Target: FAD/FMN-containing dehydrogenase
Amino acid sequence: MKDNAEIPHMSQAQVSDLEAALAGAGFRGEVSRDSALREAMATDNSVYRIAPDLVVAPMDAADMVTLLQVMEQPAFARMPVTARGGGTGTNGQSLNAGVIVDTRRHMAGLIAVDETEGWAEVQPGMVLDDLNARLRPSGWFFAPEASTSSRCTIGGMVSTDASGKGSRIYGKTSDNLLGLELARPEGLLRSLDPAPDWAQPMLAAAEQAGRAGRAAFIAATPRINRRFTGYDLERACPESGGFDWWRLFPGSEGTLGLISAIRVKLRRIEPEKRLIVAGFDGIRAALASAMPLLAADPTAVEVMDERVQALAQEAGLLTRLPPALQEGAAGRVAFVFIEINGTAAEVDRRMADGLSILRGLPGLGAVHVAQDAEEIRALWAVRSAGVGLLGKVEGRARPVAFVEDTVVPPENLPAFLDDFLETLHTQGLEFGLYGHVDVGCLHIRPALDIDSATDRARLKAVSDAVYALTRKHGGIFWGEHGKGVRGAYLRDWIGAEAYAALQGVKAAFDPQGRYNPGKLVGGEGTILGIDTTPFRPFNAPKGDPLTRAFRCNGNAQCLSYAATTPMCPSFKASADLRHSPKGRADALRGWHRARAEGAPDLAQREADLLGVLDTCLGCKACASSCPVQVDIPAMRSAFLADYHDRHARSLSDRLVLAAERASPLTMRLAPLLRPVWPALVPLAERLTGSTDLPRRLAAAQPGALRLRARDLSGPLPEGTVILVQDWFTALFDDRVQRDVVAGLAALGYRPRLLEMLPGGKAAHGAGDLRGFRAMAGRLAALLQRAAATGAPLVAFEPAFGLMLRQEYARDGIAVPDVLMPQQFLRAELAAGRRFAQAKPGRARLLSHCTEATADPQAAADWAGIFAALGVDLQTPATGCCGMAGLFGHQTRHQPVSRRLFDLSWRDQMSPDLPVLATGFSCRCQAERLSGDALRHPLGHVADLLGPL
Model:
């Protein structure tokens, strides 16, 4: 097996010439050699890294044609061209040198839907969940249910012939396609239209090669549910005659050309759905349930082993399950998920059959039945989270995707698993396991340290062994996630005669061998190898502040398209991969390597990295929502600290840092500054490059409400609540101070505002870590004195309160418990406190994005508090409002800030009911962009209960 191909890179002169040629030809999309973007495109969800030379993002199919016309010029005719969608591939499918074509950024639209015939036509960069969200009102859906549905694209699904949950019933992507459109230098080739004259020779050559190898192809491919695809000669060359050329493309991974449009077959949404979650005492018993359960005709049967169950338990994902299912007698459970869909009568019958079968199976523990659609989604999310949870494992060796989508006939699963596990035990490897057992598909991720030469050799040895095992047990090595670099096995697997036919097809569509070269099909010595393709760096040096950047495994949960999920706002606004946690982690790794090696392009890399870090809103959703907690704001601070040890800060930075440090002095001078403040603001905006800064200083609260350091020498009156505030609310938001005080007082407490000391948030964000630690130390000492009084401490600004838990803890700065208002009041209710009843009513609370991800219970806590008052509180899902502290005030960020507000906040503004927000930034943003003055929830509580 020849698998030592060289990766051909373009020279800088060639890149420059191509950029100029594209501009001259009228290419309308983005063209970039930015190092941060190329680093982001250099990795996927695999262990490999191949940096492209240029990234282009076409606007539409016509732009794709323009790109290919330019690249037909002799100077560029052999440059590699590789399409990329969501970048969720587990085997380097879309990684290559040359030109990467980013379809996700602009070509992500829904072209047409026929609700009568049941089809939709989409651009290749459209995300699966986005498509199904748009189809849902019509009662249709696109069936392949991939676990990465929030970010995988339809083009990527076609290219890998993806499948997932329910494929026994729904089939793979290739089973749900009606046609394709292909971009060529000569124009567009549509399978649903007669082929133009220019395409006839190409199609004739491909058909001739395909028919010559069809019989050998069929003889080499097992007849199982997860059929082999990619250059599917069987379907492309039907026995009845004709040539369905587009059938060659599912599973071909971009090696035959650029897909510009896709027509998919839709299915009706089943009216009823149930989910059974069953706990077994071990993974073998769980796997053995598959064949018996098929008699109940379920839509899907999936498993999750004890290790993934334990990780899900630690992550708090199992709270909706009954305690008996959360932990077995030994604290470890293997889960089986059984979904049953259909009409009410069908579901009732199949449910009864399924439960009856389960009761007769050995090793069964507790069983839970979910009927509510939201609960079913939440429980399936537990299974879907398995891949990300495995990446969270600590240590240098972590579970790696390289043999994780093997498929064998379901009846062969137990024997296959025994052999598989023996292979892993022989190599001394740990693993995590989950999968679609109804179709015999297992996801097993052995734990490896890819930086280790020993483990890289193990990767090859295990790959070889498992490849042989799939053949022994009548299965397929690549059953779901595509082949990518594993295409090195294709020649041996399909046989010489069939492989020669595939080479003929490749030559017809791609005579120069330029489309995703090194993958699947090629000549001798042209295919990339399992252990010879460059690996991405796997671990940072011990104690390195950029450790989490190295732990990013490319799972790409941060690339979710949905506007109502907080992670990641800057990516949602731009669809630019570099402006995402994954992209920034990649760029940080690239800079780390360049800095260590003293690379000649270090200065340019730093400039590019500064650009992508500047667009981070610091919301920290990545620190909590990312499965491996890739905390970009924390790493940005570390990078900026290093950078500004070597480079002077801007005037704007210095002024903001000085304003934070001097905020206690500003408060003392407020009586003198208040009259002239409106005149000072325009000057401050010019000097700091800001807009819409607060136009007035907060009025001082009555002395009886203030709590100075000297007042902390003894106990405080019963019912006292000490309110801890940040410098922005202290200086600029006297209304929220009054609201919080009034709300707590109305509930029967004695609120006092603690003397304000800055916490260092601005300093930390700017990488002034010495300044941060100095301010944090002073505040921590004050908080310790306040806690010694015995009164509870409550912070009412989410970003500030969470900083005390996150940044302070990470830096080893000890502070007492400082609760958020809803946490304090929830605990009071749990302890038996009763609140006065308000007049029944409704209100709407819009969550602070950092709080929503760091404390997912926050909205429910507020809803419970309002319910205790007799008020219905709506808590709709929203993303980031777009302000995020100083970000939304900076002039350069106005387009992104306003775009984010429009994505999920503007539609929540309502004249019909009170709209509330816990965050200072959120209230500022809503008022400046919609004119709505939102209240803090405690302000509304005060209004509801009236004056005491």
Summary: The radius of gyration is 29 Å.
